[in-house]
């Protein structure tokens, strides 16, 4: 398995860095399907909430009972836990394996992600077949979630180092596929569910994602030590916030800036992920009186697809813009404007302004995705780039927390509202208000993020020693350039093909999202 080792994928300085983003996109488009998991939930049709035909009584059965029960259907809050568990495991895996990834390299992490995410979905398919909720939690939740964490962080540090002149653009490219995965996967899953059932849909998608992610993992290359882009300079809009040194991963969490950024990410993610976790059933309930029973399911699927489109657009646009606006100002926009939008969503839903409700959620999702894509560059600005991948991995524990907080607010508050007699179309109003208040707190935390004191940075001798060890290791094994083919003619052929491989599914996803979503505005 030495072909997976970092030492065997070191490219030379003439390697075309634009070959790396398609590999990252192939992996992120696969694991991004976790955002489309609400397509598996609906109680109407072949969803997980309608496998038996009669719903479990929440008062007569406990959650522990429903983990094993085969005589009645699960509750929405039960299956939504699959999503939350996956996000928790994503964050924990990123934190635990982030430093290992810096040494092992992105290819090994990407291949492990392929095995775990693909295998997790396959295990979940057996959970559906046997109506065992615990198997679904174990497969897509725990095992798949670990795969999500490894796949998510696999390209971040690598692309930041390949694109030192455009950190925001680099992280936007690395992470935008995660936002677009559901845009492609949701219609594919809907087709498979209708044609073969929800269990087989999970099985087929698990096999396909394993193959696609393995191809992406073998496309990874890492730059040589001290790689620089000729004729390019790092964009420094907010020079006061950009560190001139590097902080070791073992020291980063000892600074208050790390924990402020942890809170910033957690609160921004909690707000957006709450919407994504229940997107399809939420739209079906809020907009039910505007569409026929036969239309609402397909239109709700279009809503989910539009959210994914907004997510991916936000990741590349906001992250790229942050190169010029500065990361702190970009997040201030997220929190201030986002607060207004979350307070406005209940008003639009209550008055049945469905098109406005959809637009509000689309803008919210651009800032949600933009927050994910901007945070690695924010970390690189504050802590330097030497250990940014590992630091980013540890910060993603904030995502794990948000994966519980956001969906719990949306699903449990909804159920409480329904039990209190609130009409179904209004059951999410209190949830949106609570999410808006989270953003207010996020604005305050972001305001207090300041540059690090010089005492936190590695000394020049410590940094030189780290780089020297890596350079000697590569040189001793004569591996510089082994990972990358410097044949310019061959690269010119491979480059457009690689982008077509990821571009065609993206184009299909965008076209499908627009085609389905446009019905909402007619």
Account of the 3D structure:
The structure is a single chain. With 522 residues, the protein is mainly alpha-helical. The chain has a single domain (19-521), classed as MFS general substrate transporter like domains (Growth Hormone, Chain: A), CATH 1.20.1250. It is 70% helix and 0% strand. Helix 3 (76-104) runs antiparallel to helix 16. The N and C termini lie far apart (55 Å).
Shape: globular
Number of helices: 19
**Gap between N and C termini:** 55 Å
Q: What's the β-strand tally?
A: 0
Write the layout of secondary structure elements.
Blueprint: H1 20-31, H2 63-66, H3 76-104, H4 106-129, H5 133-153, H6 156-162, H7 167-196, H8 198-217, H9 249-252, H10 256-277, H11 279-286, H12 293-325, H13 327-350, H14 354-383, H15 388-395, H16 397-419, H17 429-447, H18 460-476, H19 488-517
Summary?
This protein is 70% helix and 0% strand.
Provide key terms for this protein.
522 residues; single chain; Growth Hormone, Chain: A; mainly alpha; globular
């Amino acid at each position: 398995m030495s072909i997976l080792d970092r030492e065997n994928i070191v490219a030379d300085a003439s390697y075309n860095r634009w070959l790396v983003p398609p590999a990252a996109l192939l992996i992120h488009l696969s694991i991004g399907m976790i955002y489309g998991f609400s397509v598996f939930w609906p109680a109407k049709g072949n969803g997980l909430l309608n496998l038996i035909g009669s719903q479990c009584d929440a008062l007569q059965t406990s959650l522990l009972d429903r983990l094993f029960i085969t005589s009645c259907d699960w509750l929405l809050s039960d299956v939504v836990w699959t999503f939350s568990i996956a996000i928790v495991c994503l964050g924990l895996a990123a934190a635990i394996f982030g430093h290992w990834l810096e040494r092992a390299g992105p290819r090994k992490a990407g291949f492990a992600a392929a095995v775990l995410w693909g295998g997790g979905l396959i295990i979940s398919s057996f959970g559906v077949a046997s109506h065992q909720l615990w198997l679904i939690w174990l497969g897509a939740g725990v095992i798949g979630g670990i795969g999500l964490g490894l796949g998510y962080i696999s390209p971040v540090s690598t692309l930041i180092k390949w694109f030192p002149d455009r950190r925001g653009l680099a992280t936007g490219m690395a992470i935008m596929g995660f936002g677009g995965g559901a845009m492609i996967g949701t219609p594919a899953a809907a087709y498979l569910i209708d044609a073969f059932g929800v269990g087989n849909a999970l099985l087929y998608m698990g096999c396909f994602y394993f193959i696609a992610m393995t191809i992406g993992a073998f496309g990874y290359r890492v730059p040589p030590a001290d790689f620089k882009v000729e004729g390019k300079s790092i964009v420094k809009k907010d020079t006061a916030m950009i560190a001139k040194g590097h902080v070791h991963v073992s020291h980063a969490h000892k600074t208050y800036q790390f924990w402020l950024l942890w809170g910033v990410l957690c609160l921004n993610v909690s707000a957006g992920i709450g919407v994504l976790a229940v997107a399809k059933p939420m739209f079906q309930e809020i907009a039910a009186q505007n569409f026929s029973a036969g239309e609402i399911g397909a239109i709700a699927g279009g809503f989910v697809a539009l959210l994914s489109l907004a997510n991916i657009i936000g990741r590349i646009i906001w992250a790229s813009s942050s190169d010029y606006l500065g990361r702190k100002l970009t997040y201030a926009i997220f929190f201030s404007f986002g607060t207004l939008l979350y307070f406005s969503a209940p008003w639009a839903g209550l008055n049945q302004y469905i098109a406005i409700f959809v637009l509000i959620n689309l803008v919210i999702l651009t800032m949600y995705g933009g927050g994910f894509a901007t945070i690695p560059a924010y970390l690189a600005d504050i802590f330097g780039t030497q250990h940014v991948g590992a630091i980013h991995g540890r910060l993603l524990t904030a995502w794990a927390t948000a994966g519980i907080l956001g969906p719990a607010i949306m699903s449990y508050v909804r159920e409480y509202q329904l039990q209190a007699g609130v009409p179904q179309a209004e059951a999410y109003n209190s949830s949106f208000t609570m999410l808006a208040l989270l953003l207010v707190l996020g604005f305050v935390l972001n305001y207090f993020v300041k540059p690090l004191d010089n005492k936190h940075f590695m000394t020049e001798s410590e940094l030189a020693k780290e780089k020297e060890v890596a350079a000697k290791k590569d040189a001793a094994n004569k591996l510089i350039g082994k990972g990358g083919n410097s044949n310019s003619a061959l690269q010119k052929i491979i480059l457009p093909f690689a982008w077509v491989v990821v571009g065609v599914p993206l184009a299909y996803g965008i076209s499908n999202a627009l085609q389905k979503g446009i019905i909402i505005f007619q």
